[in-house]
Design goal:
92% of the residues lie in helices and 0% in strands. It is an all-alpha fold and 146 residues long. The longest helix is centred in the last third of the chain and has 83 residues.
Length: 146
């Protein structure tokens, strides 16, 4: 008689769920890293615009150029704030995913422990069954010799 774990389909599903969550975490982390790179680019562009603005102010600029430079800096500030909000949302999502993965890992470990216990119980029963058969054979041989 072969060992058959009654919760194997559940264990398979939990392991599959864990793998899916890990893939989702990898995708979100990859996109999060892209967002951080984009934020750095926006900040670099903003700093370059501010340096240009400072240099233009020192040289002397018209009111039209002044308003244009201020609009550019304002645009980069808005873009930076937008990126920061998106990054913050992704940080929360990544944190929640990590918690889900941890919960999923715990569930898998619990079911695996149950499987191990069932396997130990099964092997103990098999061993007892074999011992019983051996004892019966020994008793039969002994009875024949008497």
């Amino acid at each position: 008689m072969a060992f058959n774990f009654r919760l194997q389909p559940l264990l398979n599903l939990k392991e599959q769920k864990k793998e899916i969550l890990q893939m989702e975490l990898a995708q979100k982390t990859k996109y999060y890293m892209k967002l951080l790179g984009d934020l750095k680019v926006v900040r670099d562009q903003k700093n370059a615009s501010m340096l240009k603005f400072d240099n233009d102010l020192k040289k002397g600029i018209t009111s039209h150029e002044l308003s244009f430079n201020l609009e550019v800096i304002s645009f980069y500030n808005t873009k930076e704030i937008s990126h920061l909000k998106t990054i913050s949302l992704f940080e929360k999502e990544i944190s929640q995913l990590k918690k889900k993965i941890l919960d999923s890992h715990r569930e898998v470990k619990i079911i695996q422990k149950l499987k191990e216990r069932d396997m130990e119980r099964y092997t103990a029963e098999e061993s007892a069954q074999e011992q019983k058969q051996t004892d019966e054979l020994t008793n039969l041989k002994y009875a024949r010799n008497i």
